[in-house]
Write a structure and sequence with these properties.
By secondary structure, the chain is of the alpha+beta class. It is built from 12 helices and 19 strands. It has 2 domains: 161 residues, no CATH class; 252 residues, Beta-galactosidase, Chain A, domain 5 (Distorted Sandwich). Helix 6 packs across helix 12.
């Protein structure tokens, strides 16, 4: 997996910095720092998911109070952003084409991205009322109007009504905005008895729209925001048995790498009571069933988000929906998540304010990070220089107190104090760019703004370089840095010479299949560090000349 390879690369880079600065210091001279087809999914069996008592009161086996006699129609709702399709059988979401995003999956031939797998209804509704379960997909609804067309900033409603003539009446109201992927949903049930409870079912998964089906499949997950314990995310590939998440829940979501369907609590409405996740019969699929109580009048309300994982749009929804994607390894999430949001915001703002393409934004960002760290890097390099100058005195102490380690340690600490030297001063500043690099790795894992964006010869900044120019350039920039270190170091140890050749080659291999945008940023940052290394080399030469006799 890419995250495992990336973690190995980070460990090796940290090892290079520490080993170069601590384990192998030179004696006299200073050294600078170093697709499966969607048709594989059968129609979802909504009747087989019944939340147990831990989520809601367990009803008897689901039964329909009426059987649809009329054929189902699809009501299309179209705006400049989307084309949603709702079935007149229960108001189920049966298509969700995003008009600004292309599908890259095999066999789609440039079709628009559709979040609903073929042959499924992605979002479905049921009602639990007293001793019976009403599956709305078994009921025919009248749609008013029969289709919707939105433009500019239009806001228009769609009304779906079922009335069986025997007292059961179900009304569903959807309100759409032309410039947003959010749908306001409310409904009213009458004639079905007291304590009506909505069952909102999602699954089996979002449609596959990426060229790398396996990578997209690994990103598939169901996620909830528990208002008491926080966000919980479970990859569909790891769902082995049914799992219950008790409420209250601010939202319930089903996500892929770049897209999202989420049911959210309204500002004044009740939270979801819980969710039951049941593994599907096909790997990396699941059926989700969440619960929402209606009020005494049989009314309920929630919101749907059906669209891309755009940071600004998700943040505007509130309830931390922008955190729906897991950011980094669990133990680093408290650090990487806020840093990731900050970096994403900075890149998007640079793109909007400067009017540059994202490729040039990443190059500029790499130079900017190196510029901001210039003073700290200079301090670290000078600390290394001080370390090299002290090596003869340290070796003399080591020879004098070779049989008394405690005395040796005391004398070295005394020397460090006299010289105002921190042994780790040359390491820590060199590690500061790594949190940004780690964060950018995960930013490219799920930031839709980079999806499908070309730059020069690169067809997509979110995917690997198809001809591997950037990984090779990255390796060369690493080699130049190591070579400058080696060139300015007299009597360099063999280990340092070995690392000069081995590390650039090995890291190039590790970075081959990473997102080309990540390689672009890292190569730009490495190249921007070369002038500073040359400056410190000249400073070392001047200091060496000044110390020569005469």
């Amino acid at each position: 997996m890419e995250s495992g390879r990336f973690l190995l690369a980070i460990v090796l880079m940290i090892a290079v910095v520490i080993v170069t600065n601590v384990i192998f210091p030179p004696s006299r001279a200073a050294s600078p720092p170093v697709t499966a087809a969607d048709t594989a999914f059968a129609p979802a069996d909504t009747n087989r998911i019944t939340p147990p008592a831990a989520v809601v009161d367990t009803p008897p086996a689901p039964t329909a109070t009426a059987t649809a006699s009329a054929p189902a129609d699809t009501v299309l709702v179209r705006s400049p952003l989307f084309e949603y399709g709702f079935s007149t059988r229960g108001g189920a979401l049966v298509s969700a084409r995003l008009l600004q995003y292309q599908s890259f999956a095999d066999g789609t031939d440039g079709e628009l991205a559709d979040l609903v797998p073929r042959g499924t209804a992605l979002v479905r509704l049921r009602l639990s009322t007293g001793n019976q379960m009403i599956d709305l997909q078994q009921l025919s609804f009248r749609a008013q109007p029969a289709s919707l067309e939105l433009s500019a900033t239009d806001r228009k409603p769609l009304r779906l009504l079922h009335d069986d003539g025997a007292g059961l009446r179900i009304e569903l109201n959807y309100e759409f905005r032309a410039d947003d992927y959010t749908i306001d949903v409310n409904g009213r049930v009458s004639g079905a008895g007291p304590s009506a409870q909505l069952r909102l079912d999602m699954g089996p998964r979002l449609g596959g729209n990426e060229a790398d089906f396996r990578e997209d499949e690994r990103a598939m997950a169901w996620v909830v925001n528990n208002l008491q314990t926080g966000i919980q995310s479970v990859p569909l590939t790891r769902l082995r048995e049914q799992r219950i998440e008790n409420g209250p829940l601010g939202w319930v979501a089903l996500k892929s790498k770049y897209f999202l369907v989420a049911a959210m609590q309204t500002e004044r409405g009740a939270p979801f009571g819980g969710v039951l996740a049941v593994p599907g019969s096909v790997p990396a699929t699941a059926e989700l069933s969440s619960t929402l109580l209606a009020n005494e009048q049989g009314e309920f309300a929630y919101r749907l988000y059906v669209g891309p994982q755009q940071f600004d749009r998700l943040a505007a929804q509130g309830n931390q929906l922008q955190d729906v994607s897991v950011f980094g390894w669990r133990f680093l999430q408290p650090v990487l998540r806020p840093l990731g949001h900050a970096i994403t915001w900075a890149l998007l703002q640079m793109h909007r304010v400067l009017g540059l393409g994202y490729g040039w934004v990443l190059v500029l960002f790499g130079f900017l990070i190196r510029f901001l760290l210039w003073p700290l890097n200079a301090k670290a390099m000078r600390s290394q220089l001080k370390n090299m100058e002290m090596q003869p005195r340290i070796k003399e102490m080591q020879a004098r107190f070779k049989n008394d380690p405690q005395k040796l340690q005391q004398e070295m600490l005394k020397l460090y104090k006299e010289e105002g030297f921190n042994p780790m001063g040359g390491c820590l500043p060199m590690l500061l760019p790594l949190p940004v690099l780690i964060t950018l790795f995960f930013v490219f894992q799920g930031t839709i703004e980079f999806r499908g964006v070309p730059f020069l010869w690169l067809p997509d900044l979110a995917r690997k370089d198809p001809i591997y120019v950037l990984p090779i350039l990255l390796g060369l920039s690493m080699f130049v840095q190591q070579w400058l270190n080696l060139k300015s170091t007299k009597d360099a140890p063999p280990q340092m010479k070995w690392m000069t050749w081995f590390m650039p080659i090995f890291l190039t291999f590790l970075f081959l299949n990473f997102a080309s945008g990540l390689n672009l940023y890292y190569a730009a940052m490495n190249l921007a560090s070369v002038p500073q290394q040359l400056q410190i080399m000249r400073e070392r030469e001047r200091r060496a000349q000044a110390k020569k006799p005469g």
